[in-house]
Specification:
By secondary structure, the protein is of the alpha/beta class. It is 15% helix and 32% strand.
């Protein structure tokens, strides 16, 4: 192994541990593959055995709760903070922000490039969010595939006996 490769591996290891420390996940078997973007990590709770892939974006501003065994695929965006549109004619210039807690239940898999917006709660077990989907509402059913823009149930899986 060349000196360059050793230095590169050391830098990657340091980044990996920095992100694990930010998420208070040093002892939670968190796997981070590539660069991830994390905003407001102090408002993010993460469970055990989770995976964050290349360029996943986690915004904890409005609160983000990630249960055990969750995978966030490459380029997925979990955004718990956005503009307040309640009184848009008076706010479109000021653009006040509001947040909404996002909850990803046990075993959720967020597909590549999917977007989850503020206030969404995916509290069922084993929910799959199809790649490229935009999730604007909550789902509480176990073992479903949701997808589209806005996301809806595309398939129901039977739990193993």
């Amino acid at each position: 192994m060349s000196v360059y490769d050793r230095v590169k591996n050391k830098i990657n290891w340091m980044k990996y541990n920095k992100e694990r420390k930010m998420l208070k996940a040093m002892d939670k078997n968190l796997h981070i593959y590539g660069e991830v973007i994390i905003k407001d990590p102090n408002k993010i709770e993460i469970g055990y055995n989770c995976r964050l892939n290349d360029y996943a974006f986690l915004h904890g501003g409005g609160g983000l709760r990630i249960e055990d065994d969750v995978t966030v695929s490459a380029f997925a965006k979990i955004i718990s903070w956005g503009y307040n549109t309640e009184n848009w004619p008076n706010n479109f210039i000021v653009k006040d922000h509001v947040g909404g807690l996002i909850h990803l239940g046990k075993g959720t898999w967020v597909g590549a490039g999917a977007t989850i917006l503020p206030g969404v709660k995916l509290t069922g077990t084993g929910i799959i969010v199809a790649a490229g989907s935009v999730v604007t509402k909550s789902f509480d059913e176990d073992f479903i595939l949701i997808g589209g823009s806005p996301a809806r149930v595309l398939k129901r899986y039977k739990a193993a006996q």
